[in-house]
Design a protein that fits this description.
alpha/beta; D-Maltodextrin-Binding Protein, domain 2; six-stranded mixed beta sheet; five-stranded mixed beta sheet
Length: about 260
Amino acid sequence: MHRRLLPLAAASLLAARTAHAREAVTVFAAASLTDALRSLAQEWHARGNPAPRLSFAASSALARQMEQGAPADLFLSADEPWMDYVQQRDLIVNDSRVSPLGNALVLVAPANAARPVALARGTDLAALLGPGGRIATGDPAHVPVGRYARAALTWMGQWEALAPRLARADNVRSALLLVERGEAPLGIVYATDAGASQGVRVVGTFPAGSHPPITHPFALTRRAAGNAGARALLAFLAGPEAAPTWQRLGFSLSR
């Protein structure tokens, strides 16, 4: 009797795993990955896979949602500290964590008012803002791009002067929008976000040594540990097939 049941049980388990692999994968991704990830999700779907469900926000907001039980299968962060945050809370599969992408930090201005700025120690950005202007970036208290911006401004010796004049956005795309609309004369964003906008121009690139390296770590969440579809999508996004899309949209590839 038991011997007859074993093949049936194995078949049922295989069917369950196959069905699970055919379910749509929920991806929590940093706002800075929006354009590239949407393009890659379309490519993934065109290959016969279920279209992923994409949720974009600041890495901090997504990490806290996961901590509160939000059903994400993959987490794609804009920095290592927020991936550390979810890993320390046992919310990801540790050996799935990879950091396949890099980025650069740039200063942007509205496209119709863009003039090059040499970003070096002592550069007086406050003077460029004018008497009432603010500089848009993510909130340094929790948004990765804001943390990088704070590091770069500290390196320049400008943090104390500019901290009260920050337009602190919830994510990098919101900061970019403030500059596009002319509500902020300058903004500090990722090079990839600047490249996706027709309304701003890059006026300067912060030296790599002025801030911690900008990397984008990816990981499988603990709740999706047995989800073959989620693992396959992670391998695709972090692998050579997706690399041309990431590069086309301005990301660098980690070696």
